[in-house]
Amino acid sequence: MSKEKRQMALGAMMYFPAGEHISSWRHPKADAEGLLDFNYYKQIVQTAERGKFDMFFYADELYVWDRFESGVSHSNSIRPEPFSLLSALAVVTEHIGLAATISTTYNEPYHIARKLATLDYLSNGRAAWNIVTSQTDEEARNFGKDKHLDHALRYERAGEFVDVTQGLWDSWEDDALLFDKASGYFADINKLHNLDHQGKDFKVRGPLNISRPPQGHPVLIQAGASEAGKELAAAKAEIVFAPGSTFAPGGMLEDGQRLYEDLKGRMAKYGRERDELKILPGVMPIIGRTEAEAKEQLALIDELTPQQLGLDLLSHYLGQDVSSYPLDEPLPYLPEIAEFNQSKSGLQRIREILQQETLTLRQLYQRITNKRGIAGTPEQIADHLEEWFIHGAADGFNIAFPHLPGSLTDFVDLVIPELQRRGLFRTEYTGKTLRDHLSLQRPANRFTKVRA
Amino acid sequence: MSKEKRQMALGAMMYFPAGEHISSWRHPKADAEGLLDFNYYKQIVQTAERGKFDMFFYADELYVWDRFESGVSHSNSIRPEPFSLLSALAVVTEHIGLAATISTTYNEPYHIARKLATLDYLSNGRAAWNIVTSQTDEEARNFGKDKHLDHALRYERAGEFVDVTQGLWDSWEDDALLFDKASGYFADINKLHNLDHQGKDFKVRGPLNISRPPQGHPVLIQAGASEAGKELAAAKAEIVFAPGSTFAPGGMLEDGQRLYEDLKGRMAKYGRERDELKILPGVMPIIGRTEAEAKEQLALIDELTPQQLGLDLLSHYLGQDVSSYPLDEPLPYLPEIAEFNQSKSGLQRIREILQQETLTLRQLYQRITNKRGIAGTPEQIADHLEEWFIHGAADGFNIAFPHLPGSLTDFVDLVIPELQRRGLFRTEYTGKTLRDHLSLQRPANRFTKVRA
């Protein structure tokens, strides 16, 4: 068999249930009420599977964004719980990976190891875990705390949390279960291992009360783009969702290449090969049959967010209320990162925008609201993806959608075929598990000895 | 319409994945390997739905029972995680309730409120929560502790946990979501409520980031039979699964009546009506087409448990290793309950057996292993159920199965039709939600004011 051309990995992302955008639910074509109906999610994930996406990527937070009234009044801040939703979706799909966003700050590794293992069984090897550390004090207050855990501490906890989870997945060796009715031996006790973990944040004895997942370990995804986030990614992640890469038409490929090299370059010190990590920048295509139609679509999206909501969102990202400043003048200061305890990389992105361009407050909130958007024809969008893919800035993309399910359907019907024509994306699934789709090895069990 | 005859409520219980019995997986007809295959559970829950069961009741624990080697070698101590499994099962069923066993000792109310609400949406109003407090030190050691929380403290925590969860379910009033694309109003902020709970064990601000479940609150089930457990049941539960009732052929109806009256009698002080709580004793029918066949089935089951496993199980329930005592002599002491921190009601049951009968150690472990079993023809089993049902000892039953899926199929094909002939059980589902099946009211939202 001839060696195949390198293939893109593609994730289909659901940030808000109605789309990527805080106001996606208002889009004329969005099915806002679908949020509470399983058939809505079923239709979306089946469409993504029809498009041969590697995975459905489901975002999550652990609070209602009620810091500002507009968050409740205008934003869609409720969503189904990831494990429940993805387990149900496993039943109505056959090939597509299912990625759950789960916080290491407000969970216990034993529960998470078990739920991910169960999802991996229910889906026959299609589970993935988007490891996040949560961002806000609001989340802390739903879990007995006043303040969100400090940035450095929460990444330290995240690293230990992942270690413990991986250790629990190895509790049972792959061939530990015997099911031998005649002898009465259900399992081989020599192939069961206690973790006996005792660390700074966790003390967990084990073993896990479910056997080793079909994939050995479900696929690990990481999106933190701070220094601590990048180190966690280099050490542990198999996919990086890179929302911080300033992906936009006409440029900044160099930024993508720099981040790509930065992440891959950190892997060697953890004893890892570059191929063991796939880097997927986030991108939101706004597709038009013509350039004019794409621009119309973009203009429509810009109008969806009420001014107050846009300003409040900016205030949130900055950690400071900016709503009293004049709308058509620049922000009178450059925000500082050091003491900031939400998303440091998000704030860094805003700083970079302000350092490169002079934007009024209005322009700034519009830019922030429409993060990651590129408008164009299917060919133009494919050009951009191809450029990043072949020039060392991406191993694939996590695709976001201005509204759901329509924008996903457009992407599947218009952009995917273009990528396939170019030989950049699969026309059929060839493997069974998410690891197969991504050409990732099944990890060995840490406890299994090579036996004579 | 004429008033219908009072109807039994029936739960189909899965204690171990292969059946009720610690050695169910060894039964010649058990599908032991099904444990890891979704289709196994799908077949079982669809069979229960064919039988018009009110609910599928899924037990859980948070550890591998490895206190004794036999627990790993001979027992089936792994199982899928409840929320993941039941969410998947929601997709392949239409009517049957789905009850998840969830511990209040090793969880956070925000997570559990959200997962149960999601399951209620995924199933269109069929979620239930079997509230347990966990039992063993082994579970504690998987969650950062050395010892299991003291019995009194864990029931105190359970009560507060349920309060918080119910409060979170009321975060959004039933008509809080507007989805008004034209005005940009997603929700009516006046219909969103923070819980701001601050109690002994929990501090939870809320609101919950999913809207009010279809049932208002998923159905609450409680099984603890200690004093603390009974009080929690009388205050909060809508179903009591009464595993402690010594249900056996030929007698002890009086014990069932006493427990029934005891529980119902405690409700008034919590301002509740007797009908708001359904009492379902646990029972494991061993069905034969003839009495002789039933006895053969019973004998077969008795042989499945290896002697060491039976003894170790008894040692576990007693909290003391009895394996060194002579097998064919009585236990030389009566165990004390006061200091016991596992299941107090389980130990009480053993004490009652020993006070009523003189059993050798061998006979005692066999009795314990085959808990709740009654062997008979379908008519005899229906007679027993009817007797308890019409004589004030039960509102229905939680049916356990010697092996799965076969014993469930037999019950559906042989006993259910007999109950239906007697007018004691539905022939079709008439409602949509689990509350409908059980004739339980949908609870009002605590925050909703009657508006002019």
Automatic annotation (TrEMBL), chains A, B:
<dbReference type="GO" id="GO:0016705">
    <property type="term" value="F:oxidoreductase activity, acting on paired donors, with incorporation or reduction of molecular oxygen"/>
</dbReference>
<keyword id="KW-0503">Monooxygenase</keyword>
<protein>
    <submittedName>
        <fullName>Nitrilotriacetate monooxygenase</fullName>
    </submittedName>
</protein>
<dbReference type="InterPro" id="IPR036661">
    <property type="entry name" value="Luciferase-like_sf"/>
</dbReference>
<feature type="binding site">
    <location>
        <position position="151"/>
    </location>
    <ligand>
        <name>FMN</name>
    </ligand>
</feature>
<keyword id="KW-0288">FMN</keyword>
<feature type="domain" description="Luciferase-like">
    <location>
        <begin position="25"/>
        <end position="388"/>
    </location>
</feature>
<dbReference type="Pfam" id="PF00296">
    <property type="entry name" value="Bac_luciferase"/>
</dbReference>
<keyword id="KW-0285">Flavoprotein</keyword>
<comment type="similarity">
    <text>Belongs to the NtaA/SnaA/DszA monooxygenase family.</text>
</comment>
<feature type="binding site">
    <location>
        <position position="101"/>
    </location>
    <ligand>
        <name>FMN</name>
    </ligand>
</feature>
<dbReference type="InterPro" id="IPR011251">
    <property type="entry name" value="Luciferase-like_dom"/>
</dbReference>
<dbReference type="InterPro" id="IPR051260">
    <property type="entry name" value="Diverse_substr_monoxygenases"/>
</dbReference>
<dbReference type="GO" id="GO:0004497">
    <property type="term" value="F:monooxygenase activity"/>
</dbReference>
<feature type="binding site">
    <location>
        <position position="155"/>
    </location>
    <ligand>
        <name>FMN</name>
    </ligand>
</feature>
<dbReference type="InterPro" id="IPR016215">
    <property type="entry name" value="NTA_MOA"/>
</dbReference>
<feature type="binding site">
    <location>
        <position position="60"/>
    </location>
    <ligand>
        <name>FMN</name>
    </ligand>
</feature>
<keyword id="KW-0560">Oxidoreductase</keyword>
<feature type="binding site">
    <location>
        <position position="226"/>
    </location>
    <ligand>
        <name>FMN</name>
    </ligand>
</feature>
